[in-house]
């Protein structure tokens, strides 16, 4: 009895100890949570205060940048009449303001991710890239020899899709807009690219790993390193602000400034951690020599546009001298990227499709503008980038009327591009047109917009649409001494007041000797607009100026060597350099974005991947599936294949031994939109079943009707819904399974 009582007492004590322990534990957890919540609340308050402070700075800098952008635009619009030094100072001012603004926006984004472009998780990069390689859409070039970065081969499905995209682009723009098309050579002599600016300016700063010799883009290395500094909360706010500011101007640093920055921030080679060499400019063109002597330097073209510009005179003759007209070119371009990354998005050899639309600089209207005036597009204007950072859904007409888009012709091509990418299969909610900020545009550009598509890599530029003014033709005209101008003939003779240049032949003859005649002839033949620019330039530059005579070099002249007179002349027309509106598309980038947008998995089975490609660009339009490998099906399959071939419908037979369901899945993976099954009933009544990829529903009907239905859906003249209305539905299952 005593033993039992003692045992009971021990049990009570143990129970009490357990109760006390559990109570203490929960009290501790409660206190910890309370203190933690208080701490998080304090941190949230600090975070809110920091975000508010940064928002205030962003607001002030946004207002300032808008004001400074207006000043730059006003000075650029003045052309030769503006003070050159004032323009340079204004451009430097807006550039510095934009650097500060972007640096602060980067800091804020590190605290609170922005609303624009922050939803990359919707896209499944790993699955898409795995599928593309596994099904041989693309593969690294020369893979059996280890491959070369930035070079890819397209396999059968990838090649077919790319060709279909190019054909769709040609139909949408060249055919429907009645454009010219040419094919220029990829090899380009050096003088052409010297005139375009590529020889001198098409460079990036490069550094090398001093041990392995691997090359890297210096600005990318610096930006990546500084981004980590900005996101590191253990580093002081002052240092993070300094890092953010430097990151925004990394691509503007000189070689000396880059060396200093890399050393100051102790940037090392990625992967190895080795020291880096000094930065040096690396031209991104592939240099070569033309001919056996090696004395004619040349390059693989970095863009297709120059082939159109140098043929402008012949193109103008071809259209009877009428402006406006457009010429397109589709072909390969080459850029020797220092360190290509991001798969198909940054490669060294790529397909471009470019349009050069030549227009009178004084008449940038478009004859078909009214047809697209009410079309809505998603714009990201520079004002929104500087303030709200949200896009705007606006009609093209309203964008032109409100001055958001500079002119009708540029707006027309933005609308047509929007229609094209929607037809291509890109998701409209992940497509926008971003306007270049004032400091991003070249001094000669009037307005520039980028077609950007959201992917797992963020917003990717897939096309650029720019009003390049008359820069290209005037440059090539000066450097080649060719007359690349258009002429407008007036209906009646006009009496106009013109400014003429009267050269002081005696002074010029003594100074330039035999070379004087070339300069005098150039000055006497100068037209009114150019003479006005020359007069303004002399006045704004202290009475001294350098005159570039095409094909003969530069001459330094002073105000006493020239006289300007206003005279009235009878004129029958005017010569002018046409402005160029240039839509330029990267086909490879569009393709990759499309793959991410159309990829999904069946809800009932994540392993069943599908590419929801539009039927018009699918690599194969129809897969033919015999119920089994029975030899009786061969004649029916050949008959069906012949009928589809006569309609121009690419098809493939899959008679492998796996189940119908497995074969459907294999065709879904490469985007085949339709499947036709031949079974035992087909041998008796010439009927087959037609399956649609996305709904997986099936109909049954005579072979001829099925072929016509596929033809109509590929052409876009018929939909799956109309096919279902015309043909009876077919429930796959018991009958097929029992016969199989």
Integer-rounded radius of gyration: 34 Å
**Share of helical residues:** 40-55%
| Number of DSSP E strands | 28
Strand content: 15-25%
Supply the number of helical segments: 26
Largest sheet: 9 strands, mixed
Whole-Å distance between the termini? 80 Å
The low-confidence runs, each spanning 5 or more residues with pLDDT under 50, are: 114-120, 734-740
Strand neighbour order, sheet with most strands:
3-10-11-21-16-15-14-12-13
**Chain oligomer state:** single chain
What structural class results from the helix and strand content? Answer: alpha+beta
Overall outline: globular
| Average pLDDT score | 88
Explain what this protein looks like in three dimensions.
The chain is of the alpha+beta class and 740 residues long. The chain is 45% helix and 24% strand. The chain has 26 helices and 28 strands. The longest helix has 76 residues, at 2-77. The radius of gyration is 34 Å and the shape is globular. The chain starts with a helix and ends with a helix.
């Amino acid at each position: 009895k005593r033993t039992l009582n003692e045992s009971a007492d021990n049990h009570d004590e143990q129970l009490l100890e357990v109760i006390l322990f559990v109570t203490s534990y929960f009290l501790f957890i409660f206190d910890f949570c309370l203190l933690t919540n208080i701490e998080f609340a304090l941190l949230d308050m600090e975070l809110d205060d920091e975000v508010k402070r940064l928002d205030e700075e962003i607001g002030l800098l946004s207002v300032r940048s808008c004001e400074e952008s207006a000043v730059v635009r006003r000075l650029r619009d003045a052309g030769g009449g503006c003070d050159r030094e004032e323009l340079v100072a204004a451009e430097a001012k807006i550039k510095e303001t934009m650097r500060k603004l972007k640096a602060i926006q980067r800091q804020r984004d590190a605290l609170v991710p922005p609303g624009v472009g922050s939803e990359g998780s919707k896209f499944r990069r790993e699955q898409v890239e795995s599928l593309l390689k596994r099904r041989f859409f693309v593969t690294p070039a020369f893979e059996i020899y280890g491959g070369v970065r930035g070079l890819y081969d397209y396999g059968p499905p990838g090649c077919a899709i790319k060709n279909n995209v190019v054909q769709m682009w040609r139909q949408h723009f060249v055919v429907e807009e009645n454009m010219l098309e040419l094919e220029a050579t990829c090899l380009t002599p050096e003088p052409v690219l010297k005139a375009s600016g590529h020889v001198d300016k098409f460079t990036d700063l490069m550094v090398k790993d001093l041990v392995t010799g691997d090359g890297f883009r210096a600005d990318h290395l610096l930006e990546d390193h500084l981004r980590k500094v900005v996101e590191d909360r253990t580093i002081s706010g002052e240092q993070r602000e300094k890092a953010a500011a430097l990151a925004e101007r990394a691509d503007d640093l000189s070689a000396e400034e880059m060396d200093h920055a890399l050393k100051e921030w102790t940037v090392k080679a990625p992967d190895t951690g080795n020291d880096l060499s000094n930065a040096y400019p690396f031209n991104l063109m592939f240099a070569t020599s033309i001919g056996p002597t090696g004395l004619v330097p040349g390059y693989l073209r970095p863009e297709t546009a120059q082939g159109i510009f140098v043929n402008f005179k012949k193109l103008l003759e071809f259209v009877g001298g009428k402006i406006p007209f457009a010429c397109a070119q589709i072909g390969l371009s080459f850029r020797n990227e220092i360190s290509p990354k991001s798969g198909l998005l940054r490669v060294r050899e790529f397909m471009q499709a470019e349009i050069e639309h030549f227009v009178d600089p004084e008449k940038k209207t478009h004859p078909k503008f009214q047809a697209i005036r009410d079309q809505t597009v998603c714009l990201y204007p520079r004002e929104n980038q500087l303030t709200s950072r949200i896009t705007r859904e606006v009609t093209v007409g309203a964008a032109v009327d409100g001055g958001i888009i500079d002119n009708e012709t540029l707006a027309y091509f933005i609308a047509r591009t929007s229609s094209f990418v929607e037809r291509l299969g890109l998701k409209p909610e992940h497509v926008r047109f971003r306007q270049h900020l004032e400091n991003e545009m070249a001094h000669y550009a009037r307005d520039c917009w980028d077609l950007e598509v959201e992917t797992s890599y963020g917003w990717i530029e897939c096309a650029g649409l720019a009003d390049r003014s008359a820069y290209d033709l005037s440059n090539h005209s000066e450097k080649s001494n060719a007359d690349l101008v258009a002429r407008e003939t007036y209906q009646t003779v006009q009496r106009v007041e013109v400014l003429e240049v009267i050269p002081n032949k005696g002074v010029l003859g003594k100074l330039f000797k035999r070379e004087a005649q070339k300069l005098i002839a150039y000055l006497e033949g100068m037209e009114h607009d150019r003479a006005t620019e020359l007069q303004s330039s002399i006045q704004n530059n202290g009475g001294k100026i350098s005159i570039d005579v095409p094909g003969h070099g530069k001459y330094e002249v002073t105000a006493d060597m020239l006289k300007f007179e206003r005279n009235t002349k009878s004129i029958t027309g005017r010569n002018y350099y046409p402005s160029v509106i240039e839509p330029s598309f990267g086909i490879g980038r569009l393709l990759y974005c499309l793959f991410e947008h159309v990829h999904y998995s069946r809800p009932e089975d994540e392993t069943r991947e599908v590419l929801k490609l539009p039927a018009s660009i699918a690599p194969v339009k129809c897969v033919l599936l015999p119920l089994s490998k029975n030899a009786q099906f061969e004649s029916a399959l050949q008959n069906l294949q012949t009928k589809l071939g006569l309609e121009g419908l690419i098809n493939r037979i899959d008679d492998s031994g796996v189940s119908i369901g497995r074969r459907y899945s294999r065709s879904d993976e490469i985007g085949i939109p339709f499947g036709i099954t031949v079974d035992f009933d087909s041998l008796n009544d010439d009927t087959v079943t037609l399956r649609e990829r996305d709904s997986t529903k099936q109909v049954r009907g005579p072979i001829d009707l099925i072929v016509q239905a596929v033809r109509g859906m590929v052409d876009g003249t018929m939909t799956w819904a109309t096919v279902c209305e015309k043909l009876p539905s077919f429930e796959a299952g018991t009958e097929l399974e029992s016969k199989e």
